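Hello again, I could really use a second opinion on something today. I owe you a coffee for this, so here goes:
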Amino acid sequence: MPQLSLITGSDPAHSLDALFVNAPLRDYDQRPRTNDYTLPVLGMAYIATYAQKAGFNVGVLDAEAHGLGIVETAELVNAARPRWAAMNLLAPTYEMSARIAASLDPAIALMVGGHHAKAMPDRVLADPRAGLVPRSEATPEHLVHVIETVAAGDGYMPPNLLGALMSEVGTLQENVLLPQGRHFSGLSAREIDVLRLVAEGHDTEVIATKLAYSERTIKNALQGVMTRYQLRNRSHAVAFAMRQGLI
């Protein structure tokens, strides 16, 4: 049974307008938290207080301080049934917040905020759920427009910020990933070469000859891609590479 008492600041006699969630740093369902040290979520508390003074019934759930895991946090939010769930989207909690959000009731609208998008350009550009608003442009009217745009299934990103993010991605690709033989998709140069030759209709023996690898290496490369991305077969792997723009 979800512990609704962990939600602070709200009026339980009325429906919840918004629940502000400080996501856990890791999944404590897998490994319980062993210390009591945590930083207070002052920014989130400030926004919640401002909303409360404006007449909204809001609560704060500090999942990190309470040592909650992903499943327990999502169940608690769903049990509270807020109109909106708001989460911090910082580098250490990005994946945790995304996994919690994926488990929320579709009837709960989601709002996130965090550091500047340039801190994680590859993740932001690849995430279709993203709607980015620079603080200087965050007027109430513009925020409503962006929220409605994202809710309709379209991402939103200011053109100047898109250019800056693409520049950051290019620099990261050139200086960090390429020297390691990797791509933003997570595929290695060898895996991309193998998939390209599979797409051309070559079998394992021919691919091994063309790339000067053993057949076992080629099979392992294909199996690794299919396992990592949960692909059913070679055709599915080729389709995945084509969608990524790699072949």
User: Anything to note?
Assistant: The domain at 4-162 is CATH 3.40.50.11420 (Rossmann fold). The chain has two domains: 4-162, 182-243. The CA atoms of residues 51 and 216 lie 60 Å apart. The chain has a mean pLDDT of 78.
